Every structure is written in structure tokens, then in C-alpha cells.
């Protein structure tokens, strides 16, 4: 029984380590064919909450808008702690109250990018902050950014939200309607590493025959 307990504790330690080992990354893909050829705009922002907020960072990476039929246009507007230009990497932090990237955009058949979140608020929550942070992505059918498109959010016009919670976890809300098929997929790297580590522990268990009931946990 002692050996079983020791093995289970080792598994829990590995789970915790892997969960915080790297950035939390989501791949967002949207079918924008209903707007193909239209001149609109995109907005990305990453902001702290109204109270004490721990530092966090975010990158928009691997932006793509169809093979030939969609592209950013004009000069983007950057506000706050934001750097970069689409289709290259955008980098945000949450050290000031409003951090925003606004870009004129000609829609193509699809739009995709990765959202990568990292920093102390995710890797080592301080336990004293009283607000999290939030990422928001919006699409507009006009270049002024006043007519939200491809969203069911009638209040703010957001297409996708990702909250960074006080415990370092993230919560995703997708407002893109079913009529414009989309996917928001967490990258599997952490789960893959976890599975590989547990496989190694399983091998160790086979080498040391144990008795008793196997414990299973969910990350």
C-alpha cells in the first residue's frame, strides 16, 4: 500500500508541474466565407481587471486569413502595451489599463490564429491579487469597428473571450455562431507531456508489482 501511495503522489506532482510548465495556447479558426471580400476590421485586446491584478502576457501567433483571399490592410492602431503587426506576432502585457490592437481587414474564406497566454499570473498565482485579466477578439463588418460580425454577443460584440483566473487557470467563451463554423482548441502539448509521464510511471509500476486499488485523477 505504501508503494501505491508513493506512486500516486509522484503522479500528482508530475501533473502539477506539467500543467504550469509552459504557455496556455488556444488555436482559433473561423469560417469567414459569409464576409469574403468585405472590407471590415479586427480587434484584439488584453486587459487587467479593475482591482489588483498579477502580471500576465499574451501573444497572437501564426495569423492566417486564407491562402490568397484575405489580408490586413492599412496601418493598425496600437494602444497601451502592445507591439507587433499582423500577420506577424503581436505581444501584449496587462501592466496598463487598456491594451488594444485594431486592424483594418479584408475578409477571406477563413481566419485563424493562436492565442498564447503566459507569465506569473498563470505559472505562479500569488494568492493576493483580487482581479484576473481578459483577452477579447472581435470582428467587424465595417472599417470603423462599429458593426460586430459573426458573433452572438449583442452586448459587447465579442467573438471570443479568454479569462485568466486568480488560480492561474483560464476560461474560454466562444460567441461565434454555428452558422459560421469555428473551433477554439487548446493545444495538446501539456496533455501529451502528462500522458507520457504517466506512461513512464505505469512502466515503473509494472516493474514493481503492487496490490490494491488503482487511483485515477483528472487534471
Characterization of this structure:
This protein has 219 residues and is of the alpha+beta class. The chain has one domain (23-187). The chain has 3 helices and 12 strands, in the order αββββββββαββββα.
How do the helices and strands line up, and which of them pair or pack?
Blueprint: H1 2-19, E1 24-31, E2 39-48, E3 57-64, E4 71-79, E5 82-83, E6 90-93, E7 100-106, E8 110-118, H2 120-123, E9 133-140, E10 160-164, E11 170-174, E12 182-186, H3 189-207
Antiparallel strand pairs: 1-8, 1-12, 2-7, 2-9, 3-6, 3-8, 4-7, 5-6, 9-10, 10-11
Helix pairs in contact: 1-3
Number of domain modules: 1
What is the H-and-E element order?
HEEEEEEEEHEEEEH
Largest sheet: 6 strands, antiparallel
Strand content: 35-45%
Helix tally? 3
Mean pLDDT across all amino acids: 79
Low-confidence stretches: 1-20, 189-219
Structural class: alpha+beta
Shape verdict: globular
Radius of gyration from CA coordinates: 21 Å
Q: What is the number of E strands?
A: 12
How far is it from the N-terminal to the C-terminal residue, by CA?
Answer: 23 Å
Which descriptors would you attach to this protein?
single chain, 219 residues, alpha+beta, six-stranded antiparallel β-sheet, 3 helices, 37% strand, disordered C terminus
Compose a concise summary of this entry.
With 219 residues, the chain is of the alpha+beta class.
Amino acid at each position: 500500500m505504501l508503494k501505491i501511495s508513493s506512486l500516486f503522489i509522484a503522479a500528482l506532482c508530475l501533473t502539477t508541474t506539467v500543467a504550469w510548465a509552459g504557455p496556455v495556447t488556444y488555436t482559433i479558426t473561423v469560417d469567414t466565407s459569409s464576409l469574403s471580400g468585405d472590407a471590415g476590421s479586427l480587434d484584439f485586446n488584453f486587459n487587467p481587471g479593475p482591482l489588483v491584478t498579477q502580471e500576465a502576457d499574451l501573444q497572437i501567433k501564426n495569423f492566417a486569413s486564407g491562402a490568397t483571399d484575405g489580408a490586413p490592410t492599412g496601418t493598425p492602431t496600437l494602444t497601451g502595451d502592445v507591439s507587433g503587426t499582423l500577420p506577424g506576432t503581436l505581444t501584449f502585457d496587462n501592466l496598463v489599463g487598456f491594451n488594444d490592437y485594431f486592424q483594418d481587414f479584408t475578409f477571406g474564406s477563413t481566419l485563424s490564429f493562436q492565442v498564447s497566454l503566459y507569465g506569473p499570473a498563470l505559472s505562479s498565482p500569488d494568492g493576493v491579487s483580487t482581479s484576473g485579466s481578459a483577452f477579447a477578439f472581435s470582428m467587424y463588418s465595417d472599417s470603423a469597428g462599429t458593426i460586430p460580425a459573426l458573433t452572438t454577443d449583442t452586448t459587447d460584440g465579442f467573438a471570443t473571450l479568454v479569462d485568466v483566473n486568480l488560480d492561474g487557470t483560464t476560461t474560454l467563451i466562444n460567441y461565434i455562431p454555428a452558422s459560421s463554423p469555428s473551433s477554439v482548441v487548446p493545444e495538446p502539448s501539456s496533455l501529451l507531456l502528462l500522458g507520457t509521464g504517466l506512461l513512464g510511471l505505469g512502466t515503473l509500476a509494472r516493474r514493481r508489482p503492487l496490490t490494491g486499488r488503482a487511483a485515477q485523477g483528472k487534471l
